[in-house]
Amino acid sequence: MSSIAGCEICANFWLKYPKKQPYRLAENSPLQMLLYQCEPCKSFWTADLRTARVITSEKAKELFPNHFK
Predict the structure, then answer these.
(1) What is residue 1's predicted lDDT score, i.e. its pLDDT?
(2) pTM of the predicted structure, to 2 decimals
(3) How does pLDDT run across 27-66, given as a tens digit for each residue?
């Protein structure tokens, strides 16, 4: 189960240490969006050109169906 709030470690990927982001799991080219998952808390994150945000596992499956086949 993934956390909807994220954790301090994954928040730091985006806020303090953007060059240490987790491995990219998938991409949605039409939406220009990437999918990441924090190893410690298992939160899913989406990132686009402007922002990164935590999403639910259900939303991740909706936006990146090919990754969850």
Answers:
(1) 46
(2) 0.80
(3) 999 999 999 998 888 889 998 888 888 999 999 999 999 9
- Residue 7 in contact with residue 38, Cβ under 8 Å? yes
What's the number of CA atoms in the CB half-sphere (13 Å) around residue 13?
24
| Angstrom distance (rounded) from CA 33 to CA 35 | 7
Q: What is the reported pLDDT for 14?
A: 67
Query: For the chain, where are the E strands, in sequence order?
Result: 24-28, 33-37, 44-47, 52-55
The two tokens of residue 54 are 């935590």
In the chain, helix, strand, coil percent, each to 5? 25, 25, 50
Angle in degrees, CA 13, 62, 4, rounded to 5: 40
